[in-house]
Here is the input.
Amino acid sequence: MSLFDKTTDALATSIRMRQITHNVTASNIANHETPGYKAQKVEFEEALAKSLELGGTEAGALPVNAEIFDNPEAAVSNDGNTVDMEKEMSALAENSILYKSALQLINKKMASLKYAIESK
Here is the structure.
């Protein structure tokens, strides 16, 4: 049995996946001038949704793996590089906002748990 509810487990999983997404996007940005570099993409939202539907495991953990693959939507430049800096910077900003939002929600849930414990 998990100490936390399904929402907390989902937020924690989302934060871990957002960290992976950040690392992959940062790697794409760092390699934007590397000839032949293929931009990577991360997808985990569908796996997270499926895991939530199934209810995770008895321990409360959500078994979600990030799927990392070459971005099929990327255009190839003359040197074979597929990094689109504008898209990558936009993706990094969006991921950062979603990461911070999930972190704020988890902090609020922990604060309410702390309040419940202290008021007894």
